[in-house]
Amino acid sequence: MSEHSLPVIVTLFLEDYVQTPNGLSKVFREAGLMNYWYPISQMPRNGQNWPLVQDMVVRNFRLLVFTSMESKEKSEGIAYQWNYVVENQYGNDGMIARSCVNREESSALNNKSKSLVLVNYFGSLPSKQLACVHNSQDLINILQTCHNAAGERWPNFVAVDFYKVNLNYT
User: Domain of life, per the record (predicted)?
Assistant: First the structure.
């Protein structure tokens, strides 16, 4: 890594519908991505702190993968997201000013036994035209609201629509 390059950690949250036994882990293995995989045995539990990005890069743990299927944590070694992450409601219900409620599948946002926080802020129907409004002061406001709701923790991940928009009105 040169002094000018930034370390990269890629995190995937998979809405997992793969039914083939070991099908998902097979794809990662065949793609050669297991060399970068953050092993589940090393993942912090019970609210413990995650390592610094620099330490993850040194150990070559550059890929975090979370699945929505609980059984895959034991069967394939893929982290079940609800064991590690709290998350607010997505869609229009997650965009109510001064409100930050947890998603139904998630533990309470202030549950500090889950050390990662994901904040959703996107409408139920994607709107490129509203992205600049949603992804500016409105987003800042919801981040502050969710910070308070999550026990004074800032999100590790923010999910938005159209994070990079080039609106051409000519």
Answer: Eukaryota
Cβ atoms 126, 161 nearer than 8 A? yes
Is there a contact between 136 and 113 (Cβ–Cβ < 8 Å)? no
Residue 168 inside a domain? The answer is no
pLDDT at 129 over 70: yes
Give residue 16's pLDDT. 93
Q: Is residue 17 located within the same domain as residue 78? A: yes
Number of domains the chain contains = 2
What is the domain extent for residue 39?
A: 10-83
SS (H, E, C) 73-136: HHHCCCEEHHHCEEEECCCHHHCCCCCCCECCCCCCCCCCCCCEEEEEECCCCCCHHHHHHHHH
Which of 14-18, 89-93, 162-166 is predicted least confidently?
Answer: 162-166
Whether residues 24 and 54 share a domain: the answer is yes
